[in-house]
Amino acid sequence: MSGPSPARRAIDVTGPGASVVWLVLRRILVAIVILFAVLTIDFALLELAPGEPFAGSEDTVEEEVELRKLYGLDRPATERYSEWILGIVTSFDLGWSLLRHEPVTDVLADALPNTLLLTLTAFVLQLGLGVAIGTFAALRRGTATDGAIRVTSLALYSTPSFYLGVLLLYVFAGGGFQIAPGGGMEDVRRGVPLQGMDLWLERLRHLVLPAITLALGGAAAWARFVRGEVLDVIRQDFILAARARGIGEKRILIRHVLRAAFIPILTLLGLSLPFLVGGAVIVESVFGWPGLGQLAVRSVFARDAALFLGISLVLATMVLAGNLLADLLYLAFDPRTRRAR
Amino acid sequence: MTNRRMDAMANDPPLLEIEGLTIDFASELGQVRALDKLDLSIGAGEIAGLVGESGSGKSMTALAVLGLVPSPGAITAGSIRFAGRELLGLSEREFRTVRGREIAIMFQEPGTALHPLHTIRAQIAETIRAHEPRTSRREAGRRAVELLAKVRIDAPDRWADRFPHELSGGMRQRAMLAIALACRPRLLLADEPTTALDATVAGEVLALIEELRRDDKLAVLLISHDLSVVAAHADRVTVLERGRVVETGVTSTILERPKEAYTRELILARPRLFSPPTAPSPRVERRREDPT
Amino acid sequence: MSALRPAPSWTDWVPGLALARVGRRGWGYACLVLFGSLVALACWRGDRVIEAVEAITASGYVEGRTLTPDAALDVIIAALVLVATAALSFAGPLFASRAIDRPAETPLRPVSRIRSRVLANRQVRAGGVLLLLLYLVALLAPLLSPYDPILIGDLDTARLLPPSFEHPLGTDRFARDVFSRLLWGSRVSLSVGLLAVAISVTLGVLVGAFAGYAGGFLDGLVMRILDALLCFPTILLVIACVGFLEDRSIWLVVTVIGLLSWMDVARLMRGQLLSLVQRDWFLAARGLGASAPRIIFRHLLPNALTPILVVSTLRVGNVILLEASLGFLGLGITPPTPTWGGMIHESRGQIFSEWWIPFAAGLAVVITVTAWHLLGDGLRDALDPRIGREEASPQAIAPARRATA
Question: What ipTM describes this predicted complex?
């Protein structure tokens, strides 16, 4: 096989007759099964863990029992499970949130856009930065710049995101410069809610620090990976052949080197999503960003199992959707997967 | 383009003149001499053969002509003149006008020398548009198909939009030849063009090269470790052993009356169908007396 | 290294100087410093060791005793570690210098070649030394820490003190010495890292080997489960398991993390197995009559283990980050056990005033994880067959300039 070979899990192309649509459908089917399994596992985990909701929240034990009966928490696990699953399947009803006293779906609908905003922004940032810096370092392999980049990315990669967030908070929002707001998504001191453009600007101001925090760790990881892949590609014969045809360096870099390195990047894309989402959980907690991650942590403290399960479902769906997209892109971009000789 | 060719033919000076080319590599064991004072010349419409075992410096010669000697190697002496113009010392930019346009190279492994993610048409068209920037994409694509037809690929418009991994070895080699010919170069460096191919296909590719020499007065540097390939097609042969020129001359002369023992070995190394080697292998005796 | 070396002399008996004599001056002096510090530590803390021994051996209530049997045991173990390390730093250079004195006679076997390449890698050395130091500090924490990390101090006078000579990093909200807590916190992080990865790697290798060997439906089933678990951020899974509990012991956290991060290793192991099984030599061995399990154990596993080793080393770093993140969220090991993440969680309110507490704790995490990543990177570079990567000629990157004669 010519060129760098991606190490990835197999996409089963079922032969020359497979069409893309069928493939997508199969993947979606598999994704649904996986989600189902995820939910079951999650539910089982929560059931097995000791710890009662409302424990110690009311004055008497009887009141606690009453509350539990009210929320239907005294019924056996299997009953609750089947009811819950049925609810999801038939009407997307995810139950009732104890923390917020409203349907879980409503809570999620509020928080999901915020998490999406943060995650997508960080994703674009970290991929862009990572690819640019990784390529830059690869082209200057052996120089001091390369060494500095490698050291910095190693240090960043080894930094917990919450530490990075706290540091950035301290420097930019508190002790040092006071450039960025200290947290949350909007300035709560403002009396009148903002509209339109002002609202978006305000959001952006608050988005900067969390997005950078979330992105930096991933950017370091991508930079390390991309550097290696670019170095691999550059050694290949077809790059020498392209030079021998008199093609300019810039074109070679973009259309030959990066194009070939794009494939292994795609394979890693799907695998990086869980880390991105996991990082969002932490970063949202650091900055008080009102998204699903922060909600997940708070639901744990409140023993709100229904909400936690709902969040898990949504986050898992996000990761699966991202994986599906990455797989499709891979199929689209690597001609070697399409037609078998 | 045609004027230049006519001039070259009229005056008949050699198209490529290599004199005293020396290439050294810096390695942990010190300086290694990959090529030692090579002299070589090729005229328009001539096929010159460069023969030797692997590691003898043959490929390095081709890369040196194009200014692509990989570091830690460097050309430490000699001169390479193409159509009277000294190539050593040219800047990168000037070299880029020569590479692919005046001098083109065919690599040994077409599987790895073609970009796996670009179609054949795209790779040919890219070369054309790199040197003739005002060519439209459509025009370049059309010429790509013409070139594929020229190298005897059937149904070229179908194959043009395929990817390298969809082609057989022989077709890939032809595609590489097509890419090399895209801008009508005057000199073709064929680095082991047949090594990766089976005999029949190899023969076809070589026949193609012969045609080009005949019709377009293409000068060819035919590099191979296979003496039979060189013997059948080259006008003159240079034999390399570990970077040094062992023998050089007209092919028929060398084959009949090899002056050097090494050349004799190479000749004897060709598999014969009927007659066994007439003389005992000189290799054993030579090793005993030659300590280097 | 071929210069004449001075002959062995009495200086060899000074710890470390033996190495200096044969040319490894850096290592030699480092050993000397290490030995010296250990001796100093022993002198400084000798009384505590004696206390601990008394606490263990005495029975019944003793007036004024401050050490519980558990704590005393910790101190004694630390003392043993100190003695062992001191002995090593004394004897090690001696033996090493003797080995270097004798020239290498036998040609290097492939294993030795690999080992020397690994040891020569700068990242491996840097990371390895750093890790040894960190683990040494963790093991000696009972002796090194000036105060008890858990005991709540005088809440009236000693809360949130700034750094001073008595308290190098000040005190926290509960008047506990931050520096001691930092030292003891290293024990948590370092052991969680190693143990959790040990569990997950063992599990992953077993599952992966099983899946790869079984093939067919079982293989597919395992892979589907794997995919299901993998699309979940690990931190969420761990939170799901431990977050709802009241009492989170270190063993619980270790086990949970270990049981939830085997997926990567399993996939890797399976991939290795599958690719190796398709190789020609495997088929040849089968053809010669060797039974499959025998081949797997004697030939496959050693080959497959190298990338797994690299991945495991890098994973330890990630696990430490995970545990610290858990602690930061307040869902880690229950207080008052000091953990680095937990320390940052507790001091969140004081970040703008007593910033050195979270700063130091986070820095400790960064240093530890960096050490593990350095080691992992170095191992990967040294063991990876794609050695050409780091030796890719700059020409490949940009055409070489010509050297004129």
Answer: 0.82
